[in-house]
Every structure is written in C-alpha cells, then in structure tokens.
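[step 3/7] inverse_fold.run input=structure_tokens len=349
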C-alpha cells in the first residue's frame, strides 16, 4: 500500500524522535493546539457547529494550519473529533458546546450494539480530501492523524455523554463481558479504519486517544480493553507510521499501553517523565508532559518546569514535548508560542 506522506515529513524531528532516532532539537506540539485558545479559531468557527465544521475541508484545513503558523510547532494535529467516525456510521450524536459529545440513545443492549456498523472510506471522503490538502500545504511539517480508543469511545456511547464515574460503562463491561467485547471490537474496527484513511491520505504519525482509560485498574484494562486498542493500532501497522498512545491519569497503565502496539507512550502530567521511563523500562520514546495549567503560572516557574521536562526527556529513547492533556480554552496563545521557542532553544543539539 502506498501512502502520500512527503519525504521531508517522514524525516521530520517528530517522526525521528518517535522512532528513537537522533534529532536536531526536541520536537514539540500540543494536544488541542487548534481550538478555543486562538482568536482566529473562534472567528472562523462562529455560526458553525463542531460536527459540521469537522466535515468541511476548507474549515478543517484552515483550523489545522492556524496553530502551526502562529506557534511554529513541529506537527499539526488533524482538526476533527474522536466521535466523527461514529457519526459517520450513523450513530445519532452531537457535540454540544461547553459539554462535549452527547449520544441521543445510549448504547446498552445487544440490539444497540448490533446497529453499530463498520466504517468504510466512502463514509468519509471529506477526511481524505482534508488530509491530502493539508499534507500539501504543510510541506515538511508532519500531520498527526488520530482516533479515539475503543474504551473512551465506548464510554461516550454507553454513558450517553461525558461522565465522571463511567458507571454504566463499567456495569456493562463486568455485567455482560461478551456484549462489551463485541462493542469494543466494533469500535476498534471503526477507529482503525479512521486512522487508515488519514495515513493513506498522507498523515505522518497517528495518536490513539484513550483519554479516560485512567479510570481503570490494570486488571480491568488488561482483561477488557487492551486487546481492542491493540486491534485499532494494528490497523495501520503495515503503513509504517509511528503510533502514539495517550491517556489521562494512565500512570499505572503505561507499560500495558506500550505493549498494545504503540511506538510512543504519551504521559500525562501526574507522572514525571523520569518515573514513566522507569515504569516502562525505557522501552518506548515518550511524549509529554507539561501540566496545561502551568501555562497560567508566572513565566519563571513555567520556564523552570519546561527546562526540567526537556532535561528528563534526554534520558528517554526519544522525546516529543507536549502537554499532559489539552490546551485549556483560556490559555494566552503568546505563552504557548514562547514555550515552543524555549523548548527549541533548550534542546538544540
Ligand atoms: O466548539 C468547539 O470548539 C468544541 C470543542 C472541541 C474541539 C476544539 C471538541 C469537543 N473537540 C475538539 C477538537 C478535537 N477533539 C481535537 C483536534 C484539535 C486539537 O487537538 O488541536 C482532538 C484531537 C479531539 C479529540 C477528543 N475529543 C478527545 C481526546 C483528547 C482529549 O482531550 O482527551 C476527547 C475526549 C474528545 C471528546 C470531546 N470533544 C469535545 C469535547 C469538549 C470533548 C471532551 C468532553 C469530555 O470532557 O468528556
């Protein structure tokens, strides 16, 4: 299978760091770098719903490029959402401003699960188009494609929306393991297919977001979740792009998440990179892990923290600087730009 990545993006610092190769400086990008922290994003999004915006190539392209132009980050993250492929296969959901994804009819029964069909490329021709346009515009800057991991997607479907305790999800997982596995197997195929569309159109790396996996014990993760994330990541194994696997509060799961088939393990800010390296035995390049709230701290404190993270990252087989979770909406974008400059300056080899 041929893909459409540009040679310069394939040899970019981000891709090299993800493969554990030497780099001229530590590459840096930020989860949610495109979004409400940018006035140009708020302006272009005005009057367009989130799901609709994700399906309009001219908006997706412009919004994805905004933070690259403004901050000089070393990767673009495709502007979309983890629930876009679910909507594309007919799940009745919306992304409600200030709330997040909301599912009209929560998925709880066998009949509900059986309605969830596979995603085929023809469901998302606009995603292919957006990625191709972006890759051409980005030149040497790699595009990171992404998808939601089965557990995090299942949580939205089963709970019906964002959840603090994930109680219905855990009740299904433990109450009807066969149905749970069927649901997650379907979600893994959808996420895998969504990743594949992006990589075949030219994305140079992918990230699987298992944002809420940190609510699981290691035992539950390995019995009920890991195999499905493995399946989603395996869907692009033959396309030879690095695969980043990230979750929030997943300090106890880092090794299992690496073993699921990741090339890079994402670390949130609760565990230092040094501890993450020890926990994972130094087997994987790491991505992370500045606390997004630190972007509100006085520059001196923030500078010190960035310095520490860059230093800790030097001991890893590879390091991609990022936040421990997404940029918060109230963040001053100028601070984000200064952090990019600082990471480059501190890490220049
Ligand atoms: O109108 C708006 O601006 C809506 C806010 C918004 C944005 C900007 C949502 C709703 N999604 C997005 C874009 C988005 N979502 C991106 C691309 C932008 C970028 O990273 O620069 C990505 C990668 C996502 C992925 C996503 N969506 C995740 C995984 C990442 C994470 O933050 O953990 C999750 C959990 C979602 C669900 C979701 N979508 C939107 C919100 C507010 C949420 C979270 C809701 C909750 O707290 O449960």
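[step 3/7] decode complete -> sequence:
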């Amino acid at each position: 299978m041929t893909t459409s990545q540009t040679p310069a993006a394939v040899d970019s610092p981000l891709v090299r760091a993800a493969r554990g190769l030497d780099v001229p400086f530590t590459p840096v990008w930020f989860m949610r770098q495109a979004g409400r922290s940018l006035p140009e994003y708020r302006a272009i999004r005005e009057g367009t719903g989130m799901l609709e915006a994700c399906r309009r190539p001219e908006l997706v392209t412009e919004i994805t490029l905004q933070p690259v132009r403004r901050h000089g980050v070393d990767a673009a993250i495709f502007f979309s959402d983890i629930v876009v492929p679910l909507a594309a296969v007919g799940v009745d959901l919306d992304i409600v401003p200030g709330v997040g994804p909301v599912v009209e009819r929560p998925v709880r029964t066998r009949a509900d699960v059986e309605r969830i069909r596979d995603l085929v490329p023809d469901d998302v021709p606009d995603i292919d188009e957006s990625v191709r346009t972006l890759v051409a515009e980005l030149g040497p800057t790699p595009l990171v494609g992404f998808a939601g991991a089965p557990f995090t997607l299942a949580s939205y479907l089963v709970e019906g929306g964002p959840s603090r305790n994930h109680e219905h999800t855990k009740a299904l997982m433990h109450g009807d393991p066969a149905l749970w596995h069927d649901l997650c197997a379907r979600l893994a195929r959808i996420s895998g297919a969504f990743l594949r569309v992006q990589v075949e159109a030219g994305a140079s790396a992918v990230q699987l977001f298992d944002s809420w996996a940190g609510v699981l014990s290691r035992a539950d993760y390995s019995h009920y979740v890991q195999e499905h994330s493995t399946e989603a990541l395996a869907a692009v194994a033959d396309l030879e792009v690095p695969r980043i696997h990230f979750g929030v509060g997943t300090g106890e799961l880092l090794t299992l998440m690496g073993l699921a088939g990741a090339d890079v393990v994402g670390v949130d800010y609760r565990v230092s990179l040094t501890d993450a390296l020890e926990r994972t035995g130094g087997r994987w390049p790491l991505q992370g892990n500045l606390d997004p709230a630190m972007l509100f701290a006085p520059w001196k404190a923030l500078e010190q923290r960035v310095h520490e993270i860059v230093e800790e990252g030097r001991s890893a087989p590879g390091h991609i600087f990022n936040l421990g979770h997404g940029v918060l909406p109230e963040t001053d974008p100028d601070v984000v730009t200064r952090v990019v400059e600082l990471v480059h300056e501190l890490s220049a080899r």
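[step 4/7] annotate
The first strand starts at residue 76 and ends at 77.
The two ends are 36 Å apart (CA to CA).
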